[in-house]
């Protein structure tokens, strides 16, 4: 994989209720952040328009929509979202869904990421949902399938990086949410690491939301994480 600058490895989650708040956050963070994630909360209230605008201004965008539906619907959804100019787009790591996403992407530049198991899930959650596999086994299976089908990367817990790398190979990007700097509250995440631990484990991109957005000085918080990434590299 091409060497990734430390600042490009930090993806800040714009998990905000409206575009005005998101635009204010982007202005506050300035050149400290080059990569933003837009998910359901913001995406459904104008976030796609903002994503296209930010992409046009040179920012990298991660559309975290975790698509999963019948194949035709996924393919057409991916084809539509590919026009925005985003760098990453997530789909759930079900084989039929991943195959449809690859078909819908066509020749577009957007990279497809497979969501293996949400970082808010543990073995008890998987069992309650009816899965017969432990989380680590489920993650490994889905990473192997994603590699075979032709996705570009994997979304997983940083704690599962080594098994994902082993299953998916060296060329797929590993993107990890639930990163918590030392001293931060875990919140609703159950499988977390610090930025330095994640980089040392082999993660390529770190998704950070609340530890930056809720900080007294978000820009300083982002710069601190980038510095920690640089040191770990």
From TrEMBL:
**One Pfam family here:** OMPdecase
The UniProt catalytic activity note for this protein reads:
orotidine 5'-phosphate + H(+) = UMP + CO2
**Metabolic or biological pathway, per its Swiss-Prot or TrEMBL entry:** Pyrimidine metabolism; UMP biosynthesis via de novo pathway; UMP from orotate: step 2/2
* Active site residues per record: 64, 66, 69
Top-rank EC class of the record's enzyme: lyase
List the EC numbers from the record: 4.1.1.23
Q: Keywords in UniProt for this one?
A: Decarboxylase, Lyase, Pyrimidine biosynthesis
Q: Which positions fall inside the Orotidine 5'-phosphate decarboxylase domain?
A: 9-225
Alphabetized NCBIfam families for the sequence: PRK00230.1 (NF001273), pyrF (TIGR01740)
Q: Which family does it belong to?
A: Belongs to the OMP decarboxylase family. Type 1 subfamily.
Q: What does this protein do?
A: Catalyzes the decarboxylation of orotidine 5'-monophosphate (OMP) to uridine 5'-monophosphate (UMP).
Protein's name according to its UniProt entry = Orotidine 5'-phosphate decarboxylase
Q: How does it assemble?
A: Homodimer.
Show the SUPFAM superfamilies listed in the entry.
Ribulose-phoshate binding barrel
* Statement: the UniProt record of this protein carries the keyword Lyase: yes
GO BP: 'de novo' pyrimidine nucleobase biosynthetic process; 'de novo' UMP biosynthetic process
**One GO cellular component, as annotated:** cytosol
